[in-house]
Structure formats: structure tokens, C-alpha cells
Amino acid sequence: MAHISRRATLRVWLQERDARRVWVQDTLFVASAPSALLPIHEAARYWDVDQIQELISKGVNPDALDEPGGRTPLFFACCEESNFTAALSNDEGHADAQVACAKALLRAGASAQAANVYGLGPIHCAAACRRAGARLVELLIVYGADPNQSTGGGRTPLHAAAQHGHAATVQALLRAGADANFRGRYGTALDLANCPPKITARAHRTRCRSVLPYLLRAGASLPKESEFVYLQRVMELGSFAAYESLHLAALAKVFVPKFPSLPEELVRLVITYWAHVGFY
User: Fold this and answer.
1) Any idea what DSSP says for residue 81?
2) Whole-model pTM?
3) With bands split at pLDDT 50, 70 and 90, how would you rate the model's confidence at 193?
4) How many CA atoms does the CB half-sphere of 82 hold within 13 Å?
5) CA–CA gap between residue 74 and residue 83 (Å, rounded)
6) Angle between helices 240-255 and 229-237 (to 10 degrees)
7) Max CA pair span of the chain
8) Residue 31, Cα to own-chain centre: how many angstroms?
9) Which residues of 24-59 are buried (b: 16+ CB within 10 A; e: fewer)?
10) What distances in angstroms separate CA 26 from CA 184, 192, 202, one per listed residue?
């Protein structure tokens, strides 16, 4: 039974992954694609920090490229699909190992701004990670990665995080200056979060819904249409600011009478910081 459950989980994960991929050749990173991998690539692929450190101590180049993809070890370290057995696990220790692997490479001088033959960088791969994404993105930015790094097809890390529905990573990128309205071949980050493939699991659609308020608050332009009721309501009012204001007024109507000894402005301020105004 456990074996069947694991196979089913893997099948759903692969189906979700393939369904989410609007990524065509100019933006797709497949860690399992045929290529000539050096030992340091293999170590990074399986997040083996000890092996990475041993190889680097022997003089191995932390920015060694594979053939023909032109990917550095940091690419593999930042990509969950290179080690999907661990990615499927609920053990948070795997996320820690992934971050530790990336950190070891960066400390050894690996470039956070590297790009493969399609313009895809480690930060794009990190932004798509389910567990360690936000931590990896923050780490890469500290080491000089550009939160607006664009591929040949106009894909940025924010596109990847939004399309995969990773709210924490979206927030990390926006804090670092990611452009919420950067428009690539397939639109903006909000366009991708707004249109998850219909065959994807409900959980993925829920994750996509969770990133919408962060993008809107950062100034993302409204789409022309949406299947999300939340976004439909914002669109009816014409802007996120208008929706946020209406939401705050509704909450204030409930809570201000409960605190007659406090100034209304103070109650509204507390509501603003406490209630995630405009997010639902």
C-alpha cells in the first residue's frame, strides 16, 4: 500500500510539473537532460555538501560547466527536479541540505549570476523550489543575483515563483526589487499565477491564488479576466487600493464599536497590520 501511495504521489507530482510548464526551450531547465556531468555536478545534484567541499578543496572549479547545457553546479543545487526523490519527501532536512549545498558553492566562489545557454540562472531554479525557494533566493541575492534576471523568453524569477504558487518566494523577490509588471513572452507574473492549467491539482491552484495579493500590492496590473473570485472582485473595483480600502472599511465597521475607548484611527491601524487587509 505504501508503495502504491508513493507511486501515486510521484505521478501527481510529475503531472503537476509538466502541466505548469509553459516553459519552452528557451526557459526550460531539465536536470535529467543528457549531458556530460562532472563529479561536482553530481554532488550538487544530490545536495552532497561533504563531497562538494572535498572536491573544492582539491581545486575543482565551482563554476565548472556541463556539456552541452552550460550549467554550473549551482544550477543543480538550486533545482528540486535534479533530486526529485528528496523533493517528494516531507523531511525538511532535505531543504536544509539543499540550502547548505548552495551556500558551500557560493562561499567557494560560484557565480550567483551564471546563466545557461537559454539565459536561465540558478535564481530561476531556486524560485521554482517548493520548500527551500525563499531561502535560496535570499541567499543568491546576497551573493549578487539579480531578482529581475531575464531569460531569452523574458522569464524572470518572479514569473517562476508566481507560476508555481510560492508566496514566500514571491515576497522575497518583491522585497529585493523584483518588477511585478515585467512582461515576458507569456505575460507578467500575475498573468501566470492567474492562469494555472486546469488539469493541475486543487492544491496548486490554491497556491497560485495565495500569491495574487502580494503581486497586486506591489503594483501588478490587473488582468482582463480571471477565474479567481478574489481577483474578479478586485477587478470590479478597478484597483487593489480600492478593494483594500473597502475591505478595511468593512472590518472597521465590525471592530471599531468593540473598542469605544480607543480612537477610530488607532483601531483601523491595528486592523491594517493584523487582518491582512485586501488579501481575501
Assistant:
1) G
2) 0.83
3) very high
4) 29
5) 13
6) 100
7) 71
8) 17
9) eeebebebeeeeebbbbbbbbbebbbebbbebbeee
10) 12, 17, 28
